[in-house]
Automatic annotation (TrEMBL):
Name the UniProt record assigns to this protein: Uncharacterized protein
Cited PANTHER family: RNA EXONUCLEASE 4 (PTHR12801:SF45), RNA EXONUCLEASE REXO1 / RECO3 FAMILY MEMBER-RELATED (PTHR12801)
Keyword Nuclease: yes
Keyword Nuclease assigned: yes
Molecular function terms from GO: exonuclease activity; nucleic acid binding
Domain of life the protein comes from: Eukaryota
Record-level GO cellular component terms: nucleus
Keyword annotations of the record: Exonuclease, Hydrolase, Nuclease
Amino acid sequence: MRAVDLPYDMAEVIALNTQYVGIGAGGSVPMLARLSFIDYRGHVVYDKFVVLGVSHPASDTRDVGLYLPFRTALKTPNQVIGLQTLVWQLMRRKIQATHHNPVENARAVMDLFRSHEADWQKTISSGQWPCALPPTSYARCYV
């Protein structure tokens, strides 16, 4: 039973993890190379090597790296904290122990989201935004 009615169906919620490769002169330009989508229950929905140039509405994004309660809990409200650190500090779970695994990372993102989902959605429903602004280098990812 949920403490808060959510304004969406769980089937509409996914975690996304990406891997980038460097292209161009000396590999200096990051290009999306792999996408991994995990559903609300942790099942793999999509895990492919791809190249996309898709942007999306910021209002439909729940970025655990920008979520202020997570950053405040780690006493780093002005820093973007890496997923590995977030998962260890907030869930006491190790990820990427031997290698980068996008599916494992996407599951960790979903678990972090679900751990604060009701508060996150309640804040948004009240007309507030619980996240810091993304770094300007991410601007091309949002519309």
